[in-house]
Design goal:
- The complex is a heterodimer.
- Chain A is of the alpha+beta class.
- Chain A is built from 41 helices and 17 strands.
- Among the domains of chain A are: 67 residues, no CATH class; 83 residues, no CATH class; 172 residues; 116 residues, Gamma-adaptin ear (GAE) domain (Immunoglobulin-like); 114 residues, TATA-Binding Protein.
- Chain B is globular and about 50 Å long.
- The chains are: A alpha+beta, B alpha+beta.
- Chain A: This is AP-2 complex subunit alpha.
- Chain A: It is a peripheral membrane protein.
Chain lengths: 937, 162
């Protein structure tokens, strides 16, 4: 007999559904639905008490309407009333309505909780299960408060029915996930672990999900589960296909449970107990052996179930990463799957091999499959499989096969699906850099990348190639020659023009000896692209031109003529016009010496983490990039990113004052999450300091805070959704800060709200803000102004709290606003004698603060100077007898008083150490400035 | 964890949607549309797994689906689930529906939404798997139907049923 006989459905419901299905248009459907809603509403509101059957029918209708995507704004109360019915039918439909339609913050929760409480204590297993289901579905905090104590009791009580135990286990899991603080560990925990031994496999199935979650959070408390899991697994694996009766699925004994047991074991290191470990290894071997046996059925379900266990076993072997013998067998097995006719298995094999590639035991074994994987990349019909193949190639790449893999990826890029191009570009760029033995190969690869997939080459990629060329003088001539050749193509990508402009502007002289690439030829080539380019590229080209004037005096007349033309000097774009005017002036009045100084070759970039890698990480989420730059050590850490980038930009356009919009450009240029558009780039400004944290809500985020001690503008925070930029200016004891909130998504943020709070009550800072509009459209940017008055010296920074809804989820971000005491510095110039006199005057011990610390970035003179100036003090030349040292002086302006401050920084390049000494008339100020500044070098 | 279970037909009409995480009603509808869009454009005989859409968490989540005649069964799961295991689970779900409805077809799902929800509730609870044994599930569903029937005969009023 079928469990649901078709005759006994509700006729009224059937009629209604048929009506809807017969509607010819959306309008007719809506009309019919509204009619029905009115009908139900009046029935609910009417005086006549409805019988259970009618209530059930109406609730079913509402569910159907809801499924079609219409809002249901009534009926909740009726559903809650149904819960307290004694009849199963009514209770059940009430619970169904609530689990589909009531969300966790409904006001009805209290009423619902009451009904649940009654059902839990009813000792009727069906009612108990309904109630437990409801808790698991809604899972709100209020429910956890009400039931987190009760459910563990039900779960481990001796007289609880199996079906109730199953529900109780998953219910508890849900509450634990939602409110872990409310589920208290106790006597029940050890008894939960023993559910792994339960007679009823259904109970084990439900319990194992709970135990896995609890173990991953409290491994020590639950470690007894390892031996229990191993023995349970061993019993299943060694059982014949008929032993487990109903839990045998297409001749495979308990596949789901086996998978879950293997997952549970992945929460722990290999068992220490030799006997347990031996038994487990035996299990894993049996599973691997079974894969080679002929199948017991031709049905795909049989092989699915068998392979599900096999893949989990392989994951466990990879997780342990300690049994070379098993690892190699696992790798061979995956190798077989790579050529399997089932697409699913090829997909999973590629995915598993990715993790296997990072194990030192099996890396070489994985590499033997390179041809198969390359073939998969070329021939698989399914883009998700090709994607996995690309991931695996990336993971198995090392110095020995980099050239082959990069070449294959490049050729794949020509036909690759649009959806994965951007990621492929990043991967190629990273591999090319990481495994570049000779940098000419690197330059070739990146230029090829731009040629093949220019639209998908993000700014990070072409910035990086320029950084590397500038920092390695052995490749500069080659780069100039290659880029010159690439530019000769009739149609070349704008990114190529950018790289070309920059590199020829710096190193065009290295190829000028050849008459085929004489200065004038180079210039004409670049200028032939000018009119096809966007404004930022034109700006870059103008800078390249002025550099040409310095490199090749013979081009001066030609270039001046170009600059003088109306289309430049009267360009409607302010930035272009300004550059044209200033460069023209600079080239006409400055002597060659001055010109040579101003337009000197770019200094090497500070070595830093590849921003491309950061971008890939951001794109794929943390943990997705298993391969780190192995020569990262040699490259060193990010060196005060933004400042340096800023310098670079200014140096490039040297005479041109950095336009006030530079930072705003930087803000807007942040590419959307999936976007591949090379947006209005602002030269090298700021982008490198953008590898900001991507946390959504966790705690107060003060990563950004310290980056702003020595600068006033830049990106304070960025995640996938939101970017917050800052511009600030300070005068005397007053400051004004502009915050720019950029919505990076295409969806609007609602209930957008920001508050600035200052923890200390005693008024030290006076902070005033204007509220922002509660709606931020997708892609839009809103601005907020904050006025700050410094009343007396302070340590704690104000907190900025941002709340908004994106989709359904509430986002909550807390940041420290970068308001630090040094912002209120007035620089003070003084002669050496004055300095030392004051220094001596401030000789009491509490007036001095000193720190000795290791350099965490490079010790480049220019960078240090820029930072000290950024601090707000005057940098005094010729004061310290040792020219390696820096001394500074300034006065901190607060409303209450002025605090004079002297500073001395003594770098020791050999030991990579600094000694920083601060003296001021106020001990708290010395200490605070010293603490802040010590984090900057 | 299973984040959502969606059933829709070849034209994208939802026949069942069950979310185990909270989204607004609008977002739920958008997720259904997005998922349909992702799944329906795929050829037959390609693999049954793909990365989840942006709305439901992007590449952190996988969509695992099967296509039966006019219906797509899609499970959206996080990385803690075995892909092939979920594929089997879909099969168990469909076989159970088939047993309960005797040759299940799209119309059964349309006219018995509540029953489908009940059957699903016996398999998956709060996003975790409760039971994989089909006979056990059917026993539970049968028991419920019996209770329901004994009550319906008392309360059903045959007249005026709209």
């Amino acid at each position: 007999m079928p469990a649901v006989s078709k005759g006994d459905g509700m006729r009224g419901l059937a009629v209604f559904i048929s009506d809807i299905r017969n509607c010819k248009s959306k309008e007719a459907e809506i009309k019919r639905i509204n009619k029905e809603l009115a009908n139900i509403r009046s029935k609910f509101k009417g005086d006549k008490a409805l019988d259970g059957y009618s209530k059930k029918k109406y609730v079913c209708k509402l569910l159907f309407i809801f499924l079609l995507g219409h809002d249901i704004d009534f009926g909740h109360m009726e559903a809650v009333n149904l819960l307290s019915s004694n009849k199963y039918t009514e209770k059940q439909i009430g619970y169904l309505f609530i689990s589909v339609l009531v969300n966790s913050n409904s006001e009805l929760i209290r009423l619902i909780n009451n009904a649940i409480k009654n059902d839990l204590s009813s000792r009727n297993p069906t009612f108990m299960c309904l109630a437990l289901h409801c808790i698991a579905n809604v899972g709100s905090r209020e429910m956890a408060e009400a039931f987190a104590g009760e459910i563990p009791r039900i779960l481990v009580a001796g007289d609880t029915m199996d079906s109730v135990k199953q529900s109780a286990a998953l219910c508890l899991l849900r509450l634990y996930k939602a409110s872990p603080d409310l589920v208290l560990m106790g006597e029940w925990t050890s008894r939960v672990v023993h559910l792994l031994n339960d007679q009823h496999m259904g109970v084990v199935t439900a319990a194992i999900s709970l135990i896995t979650c609890l173990s991953s959070k409290n491994p020590d408390e639950f470690k007894t589960c390892v031996s229990l899991a191993v023995s349970r697994l061993s019993r299943i694996v060694s059982s014949a296909s008929t032993d487990l009766q109903d839990y045998t699925y297409y001749f495979v004994p308990a596949p789901w449970l086996s998978c879950k047991l293997l997952r549970l074991l992945q929460c722990y290191p290999p068992p220490e107990d030799g006997a347990v470990k031996g038994r487990l290894v035996e299990c894993l071997e049996t599973i691997l052996n079974k894969a080679q046996e002929p199948p017991k059925s031709k049905k795909v379900q049989h092989s699915n179930a068998k392979n599900a266990i096999l893949f989990e076993a392989i994951s466990l072997i990879i997780h342990y990463d300690s049994e070379p013998n098993l690892l190699v067998r696992a790798c061979n097995q995956l190798g077989q799957f790579l050529q399997h006719r089932e697409t699913n298995l090829r997909y999973l094999a590629l995915e598993s091999m990715c993790t296997l590639a990072s194990s030192e035991f099996s890396h070489e074994a994985v590499k033997t499959h390179i041809e198969t994987v390359i073939n998969a990349l070329k021939t698989e019909r399914d883009v998700s499989v090709r994607q996995r193949a690309a991931d695996l190639l990336y993971a198995m790449c090392d110095r020995s096969n980099a050239k082959q893999i990069v070449a294959e990826m490049l050729s794949y890029l020509e036909t690759a699906d649009y959806s994965i191009r951007e990621e492929m570009v990043l991967k190629v760029a990273i591999l090319a850099e990481k495994y570049a033995v000779d940098y000419s190969w690197y330059v070739d690869t990146i230029l090829n990348l731009i040629r093949i997939a220019g639209d998908y080459v993000s700014e990070e990629v072409w910035y990086r190639v320029i950084q590397i060329v500038i920092n390695r003088d052995d490749v500069q001539g080659y780069a100039a020659k290659t880029v010159f050749e690439a530019l000769q193509a009739p149609a070349c990508h704008e990114n190529m023009v950018k790289v070309g402009g920059y590199i020829l502007g710096e190193f065009g002289n290295l190829i000028a000896g050849d008459p085929r690439s004489s200065p004038l030829v180079q210039f004409n080539l670049l200028h032939s692209k000018f009119h096809l380019c966007s404004v930022p590229t034109r700006a870059l080209l103008l800078s390249a031109y002025i550099k040409f004037i310095n490199l090749f005096p013979e081009t001066k007349a030609t270039i001046q003529e170009v600059l003088r033309s109306d289309s430049q000097i009267r360009n409607s774009d302010v930035e272009l016009q300004q550059r044209a005017v200033e460069y023209l002036k600079l080239s006409s009045i400055a002597s060659t010496d001055v010109l040579a100084t101003v337009l000197e070759e770019m200094p090497p970039f500070p070595e830093r983490e590849s921003s491309i890698l950061a971008k890939l990480k951001k794109k794929k989420g943390p943990g997705a990039v298993s391969v780190e730059l192995e020569d990262g050590k040699e490259r060193g850490e990010l060196n005060g990113g933004g400042d340096r980038g800023g310098d670079a930009a200014i140096a490039a356009s040297n005479a041109s004052t950095p336009s006030p919009s530079a930072d705003l450009l930087g803000l807007r240029s942040a590419a959307p999450v999936s976007g591949a558009t090379p947006s209005a780039g602002s030269l090298l400004v700021d982008v490198f300091s953008e590898a900001g944290p991507a946390a959504t809500s966790a705690g107060v985020n003060d990563d950004g805070f310290l980056r702003f001690v020595c600068k006033n503008n830049g990106v304070l925070f960025e995640n996938q959704l939101l970017q917050i930029g800052i511009k600030s200016e300070y005068r005397q004891n007053l400051g004004r800060m502009y915050l720019f909130y950029g919505n990076k998504t295409s969806v609007q943020f609602v209930s957008f709200n920001t508050t600035v709070s200052y923890e200390i009550k005693s008024r030290i800072l006076n902070v005033q803000t204007k509220t922002v509009e509660p709606l931020v459209e997708g892609g839009a940017q809103v601005q907020q102004v904050i006025n700050i008055e410094c009343l007396t010296d302070f340590i704690d920074a104000p907190l900025l709290n941002i709340k908004f809804r994106y989709g359904g989820a509430l986002q909550n971000i807390s940041l420290k606003l970068p308001v630090t005491i040094n912002k209120f510095f007035q620089p003070t110039e003084m002669a050496a004698a004055d300095f030392f006199q004051r220094w001596k005057q401030l000789s009491q011990p509490q007036q001095e603060a000193q720190k000795i610390f290791k350099a965490s970035h490079g010790m480049d003179t220019e960078v240090l100077k820029a930072k000290l100036l950024g601090l707000g003090t005057a940098l005094l030349e010729n004061v310290d007898p040792n020219p390696e040292n820096y001394v500074c002086a300034g006065v901190i302006q607060t409303k209450a008083q002025q605090v004079g401050c002297l500073l001395r920084l003594e770098p020791n390049a050999q030991a990579q150490m600094y000694r920083l000494t601060l003296r001021s008339s106020k001990d708290t100020v010395s200490q605070r400035v010293c603490d802040l500044l010590a984090e900057q070098f | 964890m299973i984040k959502a279970i969606l059933i829709f037909n070849n034209h994208g009409k939802p026949r069942l949607s069950k979310f185990y995480e909270h989204y607004s009603e609008d977002t739920e509808q958008q997720i259904i549309r997005e998922t349909f869009h992702l799944v329906s454009k795929r050829d037959e005989n390609v693999c049954n797994f793909l990365e989840g859409g942006m709305l439901i968490g992007g590449s952190e989540n996988k969509l695992i689906y099967r296509h039966y005649a006019t219906l797509y069964f899609v499970f959206c799961v996080d990385s803690s689930e075995s892909e092939l295991g979920i594929l089997d689970l879909i099969q168990v779900f469909v076989e159970t529906l088939d047993k309960c409805f005797e040759n299940v077809c799209e119309l059964d799902l349309i006219f018995h939404v509540d029953k489908v929800h009940n059957i699903l509730a016996e398999m998956v609870m709060g996003g975790m798997v409760l039971e994989t044994n089909m006979n056990e599930i059917i026993t539970q569903v049968d028991a419920q139907n019996k209770m329901e029937k004994s009550e319906t005969f008392i309360f059903q009023s045959p007249r005026q049923d709209r």
